[in-house]
């Protein structure tokens, strides 16, 4: 009986050491995929070789760590049995390792740590295995490009035409872009990315064959704005496409820079949309708050697509951004995966890795602290001052206040612009009665934002 208890302790030690050292095995998997990713690279050979050497060193270090980990696990598992043989004065080689009772005791002991040390999942229900899978796919751009090419071949026979007419909803974060995009999607015949496409964002059809959740449970998103989401909820996910095919070239340490897209990337973008569209009668719809960085370039390649920009009262908008910045900074402090997740998707609107739009490819100097309303008023002024310079009649400019008060009228206007028929039966007005104290704000800054706000209202669509 004592021997079986010792066997259970060995099983416990085996599982516990595996749990303690699992990050080493995850690191080996990640380094192996990273090496594969570099092999797939089509960069200049000299650059590729340097990256391959770095990846090779990383995998060799991971292999060494893994060997050491296996030795530790073996020692931890065998130690209780070895000590038992010493105290019972039994030859270690003569111990029973094959009986049903020994295997059962070992198995029971190995199960216990998984219950004792089970980590509570975060609110997003991402297990450690799920996080690993996300890192393997989203951190490796060359692998994502390969998956993209596979998906194009996979869907080639379905004859979904590439369409130059599509709809992008944009604006500075917290301008109502998520709500409007969601309303459009529910009202008309649109196709868009949703959370179920994660993490194989560039291979939506291949992934759908393996993972296609139905009627996913809805819960409030982390923004605390009563917007509900689930795996079938559409979201701003297309930015990953531009990150991959532009190789993050527009992402700096503290800024996101204005850039051009080539005709080759544009053609791939249309092909990507065709992978997402479920029917030739559907328009591609996306929310992308980074559109402004490439809007002139994209417009020069395509006069057909519809760009909807929302703007909001600067004080209300800045206050909302400030609150989200503080909120997400706390979230990211408690769980660094949230920051990683936002970085993957190009969401640098707030939080630890917040970045400012640079429209002249130069650093943007804001003299205020990020914990002040003045900082976010400056962010607002930087964004919407540039939007006014575009002076493009093709831009559909919508006031957030109009959307709050008369969402149905806004959607009717968009229905006419897009020449589509919408179902408006479930559209209801919203309320926002919050008052904001601006007594500590810079008066000149407030005046400057109010001036730009007035100019935006002069250009907005009439509701």
TrEMBL record:
The chain crosses the membrane at residues 6-25, 59-87, 99-117. The keyword Cytoplasm does not apply. It comes from Winogradskyella aquimaris. It comes from the Bacteria. The keyword Ligase does not apply. InterPro entries: P-loop_NTPase. Keywords: Membrane, Transmembrane, Transmembrane helix. This is Sulfotransferase domain-containing protein.
């Amino acid at each position: 009986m004592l021997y079986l208890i010792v066997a259970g302790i060995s099983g416990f030690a085996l599982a516990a050491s595996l749990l303690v050292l699992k990050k080493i095995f995850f690191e080996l998997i990640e380094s192996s995929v990273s090496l594969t990713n570099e092999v797939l690279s089509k960069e200049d050979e000299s650059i590729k070789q340097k990256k391959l050497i770095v990846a090779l060193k990383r995998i060799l270090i991971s292999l060494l760590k893994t060997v050491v980990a296996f030795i530790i696990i073996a020692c931890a598992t065998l130690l209780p049995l070895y000590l038992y043989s010493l105290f019972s004065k039994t030859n270690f080689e003569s111990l029973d390792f094959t009986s049903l009772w020994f295997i059962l005791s070992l198995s029971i002991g190995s199960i216990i740590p998984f219950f004792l040390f089970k980590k509570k999942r975060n609110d997003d229900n991402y297990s450690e295995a799920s996080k690993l899978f996300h890192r393997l796919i989203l951190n490796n751009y060359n692998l994502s490009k390969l998956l993209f090419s596979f998906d194009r071949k996979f869907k080639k026979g379905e004859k979904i035409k590439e369409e130059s007419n599509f709809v992008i909803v944009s604006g500075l974060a917290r301008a109502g872009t998520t709500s409007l995009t969601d309303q459009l999607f529910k009202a008309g015949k649109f196709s868009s990315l949703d959370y179920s496409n994660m993490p194989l964002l560039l291979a939506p059809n291949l992934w759908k064959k393996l993972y296609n959740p139905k009627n996913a449970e809805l819960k409030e998103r982390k923004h605390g704005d009563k917007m509900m989401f689930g795996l079938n909820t559409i979201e701003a996910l297309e930015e990953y496409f531009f990150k991959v095919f532009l190789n993050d070239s527009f992402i700096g340490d503290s800024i996101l820079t204005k850039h051009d897209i080539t005709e080759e990337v544009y053609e791939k973008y249309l092909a990507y949309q065709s992978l997402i569209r479920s029917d030739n009668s559907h328009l591609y719809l996306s929310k992308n708050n980074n559109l402004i960085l490439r809007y002139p370039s994209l417009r020069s390649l395509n006069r057909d697509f519809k760009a909807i920009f929302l703007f909001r009262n600067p004080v209300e908008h800045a206050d909302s951004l400030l609150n989200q910045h503080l909120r997400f900074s706390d979230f990211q402090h408690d769980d660094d995966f949230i920051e990683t997740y936002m970085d993957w998707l190009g969401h640098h609107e707030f939080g630890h890795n917040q970045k400012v739009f640079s429209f002249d490819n130069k650093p943007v100097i804001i003299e205020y602290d990020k914990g002040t309303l003045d900082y976010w008023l400056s962010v607002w002024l930087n964004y919407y001052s540039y939007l006014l310079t575009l002076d493009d009649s093709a831009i559909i400019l919508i006031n957030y206040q109009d959307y709050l008060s008369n969402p149905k009228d806004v959607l009717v206007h968009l229905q006419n612009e897009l020449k589509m028929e919408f179902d408006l039966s479930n559209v209801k007005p919203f309320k926002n009665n919050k008052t904001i104290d601006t007594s500590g704000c810079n008066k000149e800054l407030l005046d400057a934002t109010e001036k730009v706000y007035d100019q935006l209202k002069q250009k907005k669509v009439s509701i």
